[in-house]
Structure formats: structure tokens, C-alpha cells
Amino acid sequence: MGKRTRRSAETTPIRLGRRYLRTFLRPDRGGAGLSKLGHPGWCYWASLAAVTLVGLGLRLAFLNHPMRYDESMVYFRYVIHPLHDLATRYDQVQNHLLHTILEHTSWRCFGNSPSVLRLPALIAGTLLAPLAAALGYAVTRRARYGALAGGWVAVSSVLVDYSTNARGYTMACAFTLGMCLSTVGLIQNPRRRRLWVVWAGLAALGTFTIPTMMFPVVGLGSVLVLDAMLRRRRRRRIQLVRLTITLGTWLGLTLLLYAPALLRTGSATVLAIPRAVQSYSEAFFGTPLAVVEGVWQDWMRDALVPALVLGGIGLLLGLGHALRRRSSAWSLPWVMLAGGIGLAGLLPVNAYPRVWLPLLPIILTFAVCGLALIRSTRIRVLAVAILAVSVLLGGFRTHQREFLIAEDPHTLVDAELVAQVCAPLPHHGFGLITAPSTDAVRYYAHLRNLPRAVHPIDPRSKATYVVVNRTQSLEDVLTAKAGAWLRAYRAPVLHCTLPHSRIYRMERRPPAQQIAGMVDAVDTATP
Fold first, then answer.
1. What is the mean pLDDT of residues 331-342?
2. Axis crossing angle, helix 169-188 with helix 119-140, rounded to the nearest 10
């Protein structure tokens, strides 16, 4: 008895593993991918827990990534201010109001370390995997495709990147996936009033986070309009009326949430924000083709070629199924993309790559779901297995990266080291120049209670230090920060070299030479 018990105990994990693989890779019957199989079993929940934990671990590995420019700027401009002040001031597009409120709460409760400030984005980014899995299961009614979709979303390089960035983009992605689940539920049963309420509430919260949430709202609204047009006349009219009421509720809730900020900031300041967005978009993405190129580079980063090929095949199969069966659920990613492009064409500015990020989890999910439509059982199982291995290897490639920087390639990854190098210098006795901003260095100086730099034009600065990132040159930084103050300093000399940047020192000239330099600058500027 003892030997049998020991042998059975030793083989229990092996048996469970075999049972799991047999259940997960069991061939589908018919390959339609839409048969009703009831509630998912233990295999689905085990896979979902595994991919969620993998996604969380991958994000935790990059949680203490060096602070970026936007993160540091939002921290000083909004997060450390009182709650009533930051929630009623909307004068910069970087202020993602709902995320800023949550970040302020996290800062109040746990401190000001980078991992604490990124906690709301981390939680939202981790939830993307189970939400994508739920969407995949809702569309195909097959547990394996939902779990695989959740796994692909969990290890996507750009989604991992924004999950460790103290901004509201992953929250917008999570709200969009929640709206997609509500949309699929409404397509299956439009009489479910709770789903209409959830749809409007998630849309309002997403828009309160980022105004560009209007792109997913317009796209998913277009899906519901298409679904209504495919129904009979009487049901079509009822569904269009319900959709109109839902959109009105979304607009009303959004205006109600933004009302304090609009009353305090003023409409003139809010209307000036699109001009700032336009200047940013023209500086980095001058043409729509440049936007498409930026989106492709971000989305496909660290993805393997087999995964891209199989994902493209899955999307095309889903499109064919949508056209053949007149299925509005399977046409969801394509209609959302068309609606977003149409809205972008009406706006006066280019929708830069971050605007399209909420569409990525949906495309990955439907790319996996499309493989359920392959008729041949052997080819379908082989495609799922190859995609699973490719997704796993893509996640491993993401983990091997030293830094994840999708927002700005000029991010100063040595910001903390720069603050430490400047620490022995006299307090208020040095200037500091970085491009695009010194906010990241300022954040680490604030975090470590180190001396802060002053502007080079300040007469107290006896020397100014110019930090050059590894993707920049000294001429790039000086050109970006050019001004009359340069006449007050001598030529830069290399001060020290850091792992990913260089620091140059510029000594202040004597007063007589400064005046001569100022006069030369005025004479040169006078026509």
C-alpha cells in the first residue's frame, strides 16, 4: 500500500499536466467557433490565472524603470498638489484626470517612489489579460482561444511598457475592453438594460481619464449601429433609440465629470489644448504615414514573425466570417478601426500613436479568435500551438530588454545618476540643461533630498551642466535649449561619462565678457 500511494502521489502532477494538455488541445468540432459550450471549465481558469501572473511578473520587472518626462512633469504639476486643486485644473493634455486622482491617492497612502506612482497604471495593465480572455471567450465560446488571447495581451511589449508608465493609457485600454464585452453582450441580447448602463458608465470614465477615449466610443457605437441595421425594422428602431439614449448619457456624465475643471480652468484654456497637441503632433508625426509607421513600430516590437503571420491570418478569417455570416460581433475590430480613422480625418490634428493603443488588445484578441474558424482540425491545432510558442518567446524577448521606452526615445535613463553626480555641488550654485526637460532629474533630486539646479540664466549659477543622452548629440541639446544665456558661458568641456549619457560642464564667463556677448547677440538679432 505504501509503495502504491507513493507512486500515485508522484504521478499526480504528471497526470494533471497530461489532462490539462488533453483538454486544452482537444479538437473543436465543426470549427465554427461559435457553438454554445456553457461555462468555462477548470482548464480555462487555470490558464487565465497563469497568463495573468506571467503578465504581472513581466510588469513588475520594469516597474522601477527610470522616470520619464511626462511622469515627472505630472508629478510636480498635479500629483503633489491638494486633491481639490488637481481635480479642478485641466490646463495640460498630460493631466489624465481620473488617473491623476488615483495617482495622488496612491502617493498619499504609500509615498513617492516610482513603483507607487505607477500603481494605478500597473493594476489596469494587469487586468488587460483577464479582460481580453473574457472577450475572446465571449466571441468564440472556446476557452483555449480566450486564454491564448489573454496571454498575448499579457506579454505584449508596448502594453507592458505603458503598464509601467504613470499615465492613463492602460486605464483607457481596460475601459475599452470592458465596453467591448458589453457590446458583444448587447449584440447577443439588446434587451439587457444593465449592459447599456455599463457601456455608458465605462465610456464616461474612460473619457474622464483621456479625452481621446472618444475614438473607442465612436468605434463601438458604429458597431452597435451596424448591428441595428442588420436587424428587422422594429428591433432596429428600438436598438437605435437605446443607443441614442446611451450616447446622450455618456455625454452628460462626461460633462458632469469635467464640469469642475471647466468652471475653474475656463473654456479658453481648454480649447487651447488642441493647439498644443497639434504642435506636438507636427513635431514628431508630421504626416499620417508617420503616425502609421509609429503605430506599427510600437505594436510589433518584440513580436515574432510566426505570431504576426498567424495573427494576420486570424484577422482575415474573422473578416471573411463577418462578411459571410453578416456577424457584427466578428466585424468589431474592423468597424472600430474604420470609425477611428473617420474621426481622425475630421480632427484638425494627427492622432499620434498613443491614441490608437486601446485598439491593440482588441486586435490581438480577434487575431487569436480567428484561428477558431480554420476548418481543418490538424491545421487549427497546429496553428494554436505555434502561436502559443511564439507568444511565449515574444514575452521572453520583452523580458530580456534593458529598458522599455515607447513614449520618447530621448528619455533620460540616467536621471537618477545625474542627480547624484550633481549632489556634491553647491546648493543653488549650478545650472542644468537636458532635452526635452529637467523634470526627471528634478524628481530624483526631490526623492533623495538632493540639491536642485537653477536655470542657467540665474546669476547664482557659477557653472551649467549639459546632459547629453545616448540618442542625442551635444549640438542637439544646445540647439533645443538655445538662448541668449549661452553667451554668458564658456565652451562646454566633458565632465564625466555615465552608462547611457555624458555630462558637459560650462563655466560662467567674467561679467565683462558676458556683457560683450550680450551686445553681440543683440547686434546679430537686429536687422
1. 92
2. 20
